[in-house]
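LOG
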Amino acid sequence: MSYIANTLSNLTQQSAIATMSVGNLIMIAVACVFLYLAIAKGFEPLLLVPISFGMLLVNIYPDIIREGGLLYFFYKLDEWAILPSLIFMGVGAMTDFGPLIANPKSFWLGAAAQFGIFAAYFGAIAMGFNDRAAAAISIIGGADGPTSIFLASKLGQTDIMGPIAVAAYSYMSLVPIIQPPIMKLLTTEKERKIKMEQLRPVSKLEKILFPIIVTIIVSLILPTTAPLIGMLMLGNLFRESGVVRQLQETASNALMYIVVILLGTSVGATTSAEAFLNATTLKIVALGLIAFMFGTAAGVLLGKLMCVVTKGKINPLIGSAGVSAVPMAARVSQKVGAEADPTNFLLMHAMGPNVAGVIGTAVVAGTFMAVFGIV
């Protein structure tokens, strides 16, 4: 009988139930909510499913992210900036830069959306974060998960990289919830109904030259952006050259989805109750939300200004797509515009600022690295 009692006692002590805290239960509940949003509501399931499942795992079995655990090795690839760079290559291979080439004014809208980053930077300084931590946190405002991870790693902010990554990817996933109220608040129904002229055709030569020229110019000015901009443009060159179809398909499908699984689960696994439920993390999440809202608003407001300057030729809604969440933000611009006028088609117009936002966020990250002397 004593053997049976000891066995049962050991099994009880080794179970997760014995060490489960209230915080763990809270994070498990949050993970289940995220899974519901991803599966039942379709909120960017490619991001939310692996992130929320990683969140679920780590709050049941914390050792999975500690040294020697399975997700520890995945997370090291985040710290070494390998996965973020590969994500950028996949995004480039999947994305048509034609709308940006056809309408270069989109660069201004992408630049305006970066205002949220600088708003968050000064907000983080005001909250007591040091300058490097503030810079790493502020990139959340670009709604760009890979760049957030990349910059936090380069600036040596690995202790807060988990909350930064989770906040960035969560806001990317929740774009359809966060952006529409801001867009509707800052625009009139008449503005939302504006139909834009069809974009001019973009030649194959232009599409081939664009990634090469952007890589040369940006990397010469800010060499530290080369890992992100270089991989983004390499992926796009795979797509547009037409001579390496196998590489384009691999980068945009098999490799991309493998990286999403590794990065998503490892990011989710940084959200243990001990690491996540504290004042610092809550500040980071709040700053990220404020930054994202400011970036969205800045893009829409510049869109309104450009609408006035062009005498009603630009729909201000496309300015909200200047954040880097590709192509989620562009889809939201299309959705809000279609609600005002079902015959309105803004998706391709919104892809211009959306792609410009990806480039802009990478440039801002490179600027921070240059300021702090990171090579």
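LOG (cont.) second protein
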Amino acid sequence: MENWDVIIIGAGSAGLSAGIYAIRSGLKTLILDEKLAGGTISDAPTVVNYPGFAEISGGELAEKMTTHCRKLGATIHDLEPVNELDLMGDTKTIKTTRASYEAKAVIFSTGSHYREIGAKGEKEFRGRGVSYCGVCDGPFFKGKRVLVVGGGNSAATTILYLSGIASEVVVVHRRNSFRAEHTMVAEIASKPNVKVLWNTEIQEIKGNKQVNAVTVIDNTTGQSRDLAVDAVFVQIGEAPNSQLAKASGVETDEHGYIKIDIRQHTNILGVYAAGDVTNHPVKQVGTAVGQGITAALEAYVHIRRPYYRK
């Protein structure tokens, strides 16, 4: 059984930021992730709203954070899923597919996963024309006609990225206006190869071996029609990866997000949460970084009990 001061579950922006501050605070720090370190920010083609970088790819930003964290001395075990947790005692026990660990504090930064639209054919054609990551799969559809579902920031980022690759980008949005940032909405409007279908939803995704069409319905008129497309990029937000925390006694809200206070505390002493898995209302890399920092410093207070917080 390996002993650590703090174990951080999740190596995205929040987890890596927590790792940087935990190790700088003198805490023996382990970060675990079932995937490669970096988190979902790695999927973003460009990041234009993170302070200090006018424009940077999500992959490069994630790599810089990971390298910084490792350079300071944090131990990162990626591709090591956590299977079981016991968080109720003063010493927390974490079991993974490889080993068992003990820690004095635990930080959940498990992030979120892409939401599905639930249309017929979506699961069948996943990886065969249905994608949830524009930067990952967009290059496979260079010069082709693609469709993007959604109207928030993630959808807008994907639309702009694909507009430079595809011959045409059709956007299906169930509302009559975008919810994305004003600057991105204005840029989308300037793209001649982007066509937006307002008040519209996908009923079915069709194809043979690959996607070749979708059936959409206009919610205003009630009329359905088929559109020929080569790919469908679903960008309708994300859902929290909180199942493990909830099963371990950590309280979540009605949407599955971990409940936190202003200092990132959960309902269990010595257990904290940060980033997109929490019920913080803003889901951005900048807020995830700030929450990770706060969680790490609160873990330090819990473990070392400095004079200024006794």
